[in-house]
């Protein structure tokens, strides 16, 4: 068993500092599940984390996996050897860029059965992020009737998180407005359920006008929050709610929120790991629901590209593609070990 | 009938630019109520608005009143001549620094009967602001059982809004932590229901430690948001919610919200006037509930000082007291006309 690791943070322009490292099967704690990883999803958070300080090198990145259970801790009752599971994991433990991974059962659910392993690997992080934002941040009802007439603007609707947020928001009855610019990504976003796809090459205020949209209840930003900060404030309703998953590069004027009593949330999916353990089983609950709705045919896979083989080269190439914004939907790597 | 008005924005250091102006009874629209004002409440928003541009001079400030109905528009059925009503009003119409005022019925409720008129005048703006923040921003349940174990930190608990927020949060079952510094204001805050009063002369992080408080679910800032921005972020729980009613003087780093997925709202009570008319009756509903709970003896008056007579001098003096932070609870002016 091996992982792709790095000993220090680096920029891609410095060359490929990832390397392959063998490891032994670790001891399992009572609630741990030991997984033979079959496919991993790649996310922008990989590229951001790669450039942050490493406290205990080497570091294994990777926040999406599907795999087969090989062993379980003494208190695990929900999973047994041979089960296929999927998970995102947490930011502060060894990641999924590996042939095998240990994960606490709170973070895991049974993978959907009617999609391929590669397709399943594309779901966890984006689904968890979108679910938290919609149901906990925006407090959207799970009763579709309650959401009738409510609308959400998803900035960068064709991205990984945007693709899942679109599907979930649509399923729960919201009017979904997304942004994209290329024909390919516009079509993609529509195919996932977007009612209206705006062109984010134009000022979104003008796009709203030309589509006769006055304002929206919710804005979910998955791309360049600084660029969209004032636009989002202009487009959300009085007492509306804006959330972002993209860190700012500059300070902002919070007084702009005042006239309309706007609420702003900086959503971060790994926050829950700071909370008590009971609460961390919420990851399991979300993933179980997602898995169920994939099996029901409600949510479609968002994977658009599969790389074959967990290698130093492929991990580096995947980071390049993400940093160059070459990916819509999700890029996954099939482990092939 | 007369009002205290000004023709231009001014600072107190420029001298008293308020003057008395007589006016005639205006035409009433269908849903308007014409009120003989008996007592007015003074608020920090008066001092802030005094310094803003006047589009159509002269301007009548004043955002709290209790008075007796003298006449009603043709479609008003809930109020009749002789009814005692109270209201805050809205920011964009003539205010309550006057012997008579026209107000749309959506903004009005019957005043409580078991407190004096001066005491009743202290409630509307602070109650509405506190109610919106607790029930709409923080989404606090009206079922006390749901709030068991939940906690709120109210910064400047002895201020006007802080005094009402304390009473309402306590009534609905939250653990209420406030801040104050003088013995008098500490006692005041305790008398309104604060479970713990911290000394805001000290770093609130240290105050939390010395009272064995780990963190709180909600933080409501009613004083100097810039000063408390980072402290509030440190003291709120992961996925917690911070609200302020005090504008910032500087830009802030919104990335500080990320690690704990914190939600931030800039609450502004007059925002609702931007929304559709149906929604504006929410002011009426809040005030009716407040009036009911005052009559039930649940909420105590927060008035600590009464000035006698609606005069140019008294309005100016009241602005001075507010700007010098000499008031805890509420200052009201009895109209005496």
UniProtKB/TrEMBL annotation, chains A, B:
Residues 15-333 form the Enoyl reductase (ER) domain. Pfam families: ADH_N, ADH_zinc_N. Keywords: Metal-binding, Oxidoreductase, Zinc. GO terms for molecular function: oxidoreductase activity; zinc ion binding. InterPro entries: ADH-like_C (IPR013149), ADH-like_N (IPR013154), ADH_Zn_typ-1 (IPR014182), ER (IPR020843), GroES-like_sf (IPR011032), Lipid_raft_assoc_Zn_ADH (IPR052585), NAD(P)-bd_dom_sf (IPR036291), Quin_OxRdtase/zeta-crystal_CS (IPR002364). SUPFAM superfamilies: GroES-like, NAD(P)-binding Rossmann-fold domains. CDD domains: AL_MDR. PROSITE patterns: QOR_ZETA_CRYSTAL. NCBIfam families: adh_fam_1 (TIGR02817). Belongs to the zinc-containing alcohol dehydrogenase family. Quinone oxidoreductase subfamily. This is Zinc-type alcohol dehydrogenase-like protein.
């Amino acid at each position: 068993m091996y992982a792709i690791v790095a000993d220090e943070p680096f920029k891609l322009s410095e060359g490929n500092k990832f390397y392959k490292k063998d490891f032994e099967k670790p001891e399992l704690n009572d609630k741990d599940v030991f997984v033979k990883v079959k496919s991993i999803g790649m996310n922008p958070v990989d590229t951001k984390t790669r450039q942050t300080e490493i406290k205990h090198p080497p570091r294994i990145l990777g926040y999406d996996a599907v795999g087969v259970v090989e062993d379980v801790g003494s208190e695990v009752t929900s999973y047994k050897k041979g089960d296929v599971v999927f998970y995102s994991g947490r930011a502060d433990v060894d990641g999924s860029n590996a042939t095998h991974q240990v994960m606490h059962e709170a973070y895991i659910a049974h993978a959907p059965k009617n999609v391929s392993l590669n397709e399943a690997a594309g779901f966890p992080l984006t689904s968890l992020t979108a679910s938290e934002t919609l149901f906990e941040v925006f407090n959207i009802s799970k009763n579709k009737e309650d959401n009738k007439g409510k609308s959400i603007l998803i900035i960068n609707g064709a991205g990984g998180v945007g693709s899942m947020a679109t599907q979930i928001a649509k399923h729960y009855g919201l009017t979904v407005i997304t942004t994209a610019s290329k024909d390919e990504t516009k079509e993609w976003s529509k195919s996932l359920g977007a009612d209206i796809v705006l062109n984010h090459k134009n000022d979104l205020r003008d796009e709203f006008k030309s589509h006769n949209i006055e304002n929206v209840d919710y804005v979910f930003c998955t791309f360049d929050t600084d660029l969209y900060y004032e636009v989002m404030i202009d487009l959300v309703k009085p007492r509306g709610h804006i959330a972002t998953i993209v860190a700012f590069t500059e300070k902002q004027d919070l007084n702009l929120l005042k006239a309309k009593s706007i609420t702003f949330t900086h959503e971060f999916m790994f926050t829950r790991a700071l909370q008590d353990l009971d609460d961390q089983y919420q990851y399991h609950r979300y993933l179980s629901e997602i898995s169920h709705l994939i099996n029901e045919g409600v949510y479609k896979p968002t994977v658009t590209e599969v790389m074959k083989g967990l290698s130093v080269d492929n991990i580096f190439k995947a980071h390049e593609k993400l940093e160059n914004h070459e990916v819509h939907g999700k890029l996954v790597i099939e482990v092939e070990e």
